[in-house]
Amino acid sequence: MKKGNDNLKRVIVDFKKLTPEILALLVERYPDGYDDDQIISFRNQHNEIIEAVEVTTSDTKYLVKVSTKLAVTMENYDEDDYEDFDNDDPEAVQDPDVVDEDSDDDND
User: How many other C-beta atoms are found inside a 10 Å radius of the C-beta of residue 16?
Assistant: First the structure.
């Protein structure tokens, strides 16, 4: 039996486009963070593998790309930080200070 949400609009969201509304939905859905088994992997139009977590509203299914910035922002979420912004303002969610884990120096 199919779920009744097959006609939802589907939107892929990068951290740069994350809004306070979507961030709040993520924190509500994944209050302790997301696990590997909650991550959806798929290929985009450029055949790149994308990893995302899903949140759904009454009319839209959001696939939010997984990143270190997303995890840190969710961990430090405080709705008061966004009270001066519109729910759909992508400028409201700022990049957190994240140490780049990919910049390993193997020049020993």
Answer: 11
Tens digits of per-residue pLDDT, 52-93? Answer: 999 998 899 999 999 888 888 888 888 888 888 898 888 888
SS3 call for 10? strand
Q: Residues 42, 50: contact at Cβ < 8 Å?
A: yes
CB 80 within 8 A of CB 32: no
β-pair type (9-13, 60-65) = parallel
Task: Look up tokens 């270190």; give the residue.
Answer: 68
pTM above 0.85, yes or no: no
End-to-end Cα, the chain, rounded Å: 57
Q: Which residues contact 27 (CB under 8 A, 6 or more apart)?
A: 74, 77
